[in-house]
Amino acid sequence: MSAVNITGHIDDLIVISGSADQTIRIWCLRGLNQDISSPDIILLNSLNEHKDCVRALARIDDSRFLSASNDASIRAWDATTGKCIGEFYGHTNFVYGLACSPDFPKFVSCGEDRSIRVWLLPSASEWAPEKHFSCFQTILLPCQSAWCVAMVPNGDIIVGGSDSMIRIFSCDSTRQASSDILKLYETELANFKITVPSSSGAGDLVLNNLPGVEALTRPGKSEGQIMVINDNGRSVCYQWSSHGTRWIEVGDVVGSQPSNRQVHEGKVSYYCLSRFINFVVFVNCYVKFACRILLLQLLIKIQFCYC
């Protein structure tokens, strides 16, 4: 939960929830001190623009908040009007976590696409309905799922992954791992196998039609751009890092046998939760935020990395 002052809601207690029914709901709990006969009594607004489960919410400031969904999008909202004021696209799969910091004009997200995404928050004049924003930086992980993410006051990013690891990424050169450790980390990324489901079990990519290694000499067009090349008979996936101005090898592309998992809108659905709800609490008080604690089962190892 987060606590802030909301313009236009003086002395109100506003709760915002996101759920598996694809909705975000804004509630007013002012003066509530007993059971109610119907939730409609305290419901202020219901927001229905996401196309799948709402996985995470995060406060931007006194009147704006973010939401993340299984539809791979992140949306910004005005809590006082209930209007969407911006959309953030970059993730290619479910988005599981969001984190903002009052000390930095950015936020971070994580999800099922092996990545943390760093986004710059627009200025007050840049917010606009249906306006799309792109991510500033993509940080790849050597595991399929990045379950949750947090930002600490010094700007470091903490993420918990499906490989039972907690990793800390820092822009502070004095806190980064040695060059040898970073090389090992990139090797671990490159050794990851990226599965392409297909009816034949061999993947949908035709190796001979892929560009060769010479394609890596051309810069990418946008942060996080994906390119698969033919590297001496191997289908190898690379991702463009605008931050590092280079292509980063992210793994071999391999085929798989057809999956029996349920497919929704052409995508295989992983790790769907039947009941998933998050809350952001807006209250008229001043709160000094402490570092959020990540509670993850079996996450006992810590690595210092870079961003």
Descriptive report:
With 307 residues, the protein is mainly beta. It has one helix and 23 strands. Strands 4-5-6-7-11 form a five-stranded mixed β-sheet, with no helix packed on it. Mean pLDDT is 76; it is low at 1-11, 197-203 and 256-304. One of its GO terms (molecular function) is ubiquitin binding. Pfam families: PFU, WD40.
Task: Based on the model shown, name its key terms.
307 residues; mainly beta; Lipocalin; five-stranded mixed beta sheet; four-stranded antiparallel beta sheet; 4% helix; elongated; disordered N terminus; cytoplasm; PFU; repeat
Summarize the structure.
The protein is mainly beta. The chain has one helix spanning 179-190, and strands at 13-19, 24-28, 43-47, 54-59, 64-69, 73-78, 84-89, 95-100, 106-111, 115-120, 132-134, 137-140, 146-151, 157-161, 165-170, 193-197, 226-231, 234-241, 246-256, 263-264, 267-268, 277-283, 301-306.
Number of helices: 1
Low-confidence stretches: 1-11, 197-203, 256-304
Instruction: Give the total of beta strands.
Output: 23
Question: Mind telling me the C-alpha Rg?
Answer: 21 Å
Give the end-to-end Cα distance, rounded to a whole number of Å.
27 Å
